[in-house]
Design goal:
The chain is an all-alpha fold and 345 residues long. It is built from 16 helices and no strands. It has helices at residues 6-24, 35-56, 62-91, 94-108, 112-119, 136-155, 160-184, 186-191, 197-213, 220-240, 253-265, 271-276, 279-286, 288-305, 312-334, 337-344.
Amino acid sequence: MTNYRPEIDGLRALAVLSVIFFHAGFQSFSGGFVGVDIFFVISGYLITSIILSEKQNDTFTLIGFYERRMRRILPALFLVMFVCLPLAWLCLRPNEMKEFCDSLIAVSVFASNYLFWTQSGYFATANELKPLLHTWSLAVEEQYYLLFPLFLLFTWSLGKRLVISILVITALTSLSVSHWGAFNKPGVTFYFLPTRGWELLIGVLASFYLFDNKKIEINKFLNEVFSFIGLALIIFSVFNFDLSTPFPSLYALIPTLGTVLIILFASQQTYICKLLSNKLMVGIGLISYSAYLWHQPLFAYARQVNYGELDNASLLTLTVLVMVLSYFSWRYIENDWLINKITNS
């Protein structure tokens, strides 16, 4: 198992708050959708670090990997889906109810990115009313992690250098297709794994590097500089990108490279590491998965009830409610407390 890095949880907090404030409609966070891209990089880094550690200790198994992914993803996801059901009956019109039922099925098999691609573009106004729209990113991740361990299983014997070369070529190809598609096929490019995979692979490659080298050997001043640049790139994206930004494309390199710079250079002595490692940021980071799951359904159903109009006070109240629900689902569902309680009773 990799050593715990609290600044990664701080990055998660930054990512989830950006997404929540973007979906809430706060105009200052016009590029908050890049929080998903930050999550992709973090996920690629963390999951690969765990796999590499297990490969080194000869404890890695496909069954064990997939079991951990299911235990990590499914309990909280199914809870949110369960809570969404009665609210859907109360709030949705018949045609919307049909779409919602379709999304329940798609989410259950991690294919919601395909479903929402067929319905409308991600930034379409109507999507504000779809309770499970945000699960498209979970589908991309799980499709990736269905394939990535199999890739390592079949290529590991070829040697790490060749494996990394294949990953670099794949990432560059994915980025090239992503940039072309953002201008020519924006819908499919936004939602699909082949044009999102490079973001996960940036994190994967960072993990390969740090697994062998622990940290880039560089002086403290440059660590400060590069980690600061990383945070600046993320903040720039969140506050300067908007719905007119072709995405994902080369523009997506700004937040993703910013994330990688923090992963690589934010050592414990750096100011950025200390900033991201404060208790508030780490606390939000720990509940970030649950917060990501809860925010869209709450906003969507509230907009259904209020005919799409929510004032800032309502949005802030809903955001607080998201955090409260997220804490309880993190504490009692994500950490398996309830599952273990039922199993042992």
